[in-house]
Amino acid sequence: MLVRLAAERATGALLRDHGTLYLVDGRVVHAESPAAPGVDVLLTTAGRLPREGWDEAVDRAGAHRAVGRFLVDSGRLHDGELEICHLGAVFDAAFFALSPTSGPTRFRYGVGHWFGTVRPVSAEAVERETVRRRELLDAVWPYAAVDTAPVVPRPAAPGQHAGARRRALLAAADGVRTPAELARVLGRPAFHTLLDVRRLAAAGLVETPLDGAPDATPAPTPAFPPVPPVADPDIALLRRLRDALEAHL
Amino acid sequence: MPGIDECLMEAMTLPGARGASLVDWNSGLALGTAGESPVGDHETTAAETAELARAAAEFDTFTAAAEETGAAAGEDPGPPVEDLIVTTRAGYHVLRFVRTSFDSSVFLHLWLDRDTGNLALARIRLADLARRLVLG
Questions:
Q1: Which superkingdom heads the taxonomic lineage of this protein's source (chain B) (predicted)?
Q2: How high is the ipTM of this complex?
């Protein structure tokens, strides 16, 4: 449907269960999703913009659908910052809005968004990136259960390090917050947080809920009989074992 | 500087420049591209350079000492890794991390021709471009 709307250069809002894409002349100009922090969260959480500065911009420019432009023209943000932040938020929200589980699709012609146009991207690019992101998540760690479950850190193996960004994520993981909630707390895009959680789970630094099977379609004829699930696999240890074995080949 | 496209256009005026892009190293997304890609597809190049940039940005070997230096100065010093340079038989690649005052993970990638490119000049100019992209 998105491709058809792009071909007919449609203007309006594409509504789905997990989010909304806004098109102008068939190009994506904005997207929002309840699952993804908006530009306001990204800018205010880090202290780049005070909440009052954002509210004033919405009050003064929202009616003209030019909030993004106003943030730059009033000296609150620079062009490059606005583009980087807004593009990040658009692709982030589009990832959730276009997910296969996002239900039926409706399109309302002529509907615009109050944020206004910053840097339109082609609908094909948005769709391609969304598919690439889904594949990337499964390539890292094919257990979608970690995307929605509370993030529960596991102790690191001796000498195992997570990197500064993921250490900050682990520090905020209190065993209750889900990846989407952590994204809001940290002021980061939700997809980036999902990806970091999957990387942490693959490294054995975050629990993987046992209920879900791998999402990737299994090989047609397994070379080995299926292995019964292990209650507490020490993934870091298994990885070190594998590396040691490979080093001796 | 007005924005991403103008920044990339300016990078393309450097001697020997063949391609430039602004890439998010966490997701592998190309936020903007100009010129050619070494593999004929900017999105593939973005995903591949992002893997390299992420390794440099996250491994403690590269970041630990730099973060101590920043903490001593008592101000936000920006990303601990400034740039990455890859030289190949055919060209140079310069990856420059962009510092933003909100959470982001972006870098500029400039691909230079080996014969006509000037690596030292490109590194200095790319640092300046990265700064002006967010500071205006």
A1: Bacteria
A2: 0.93
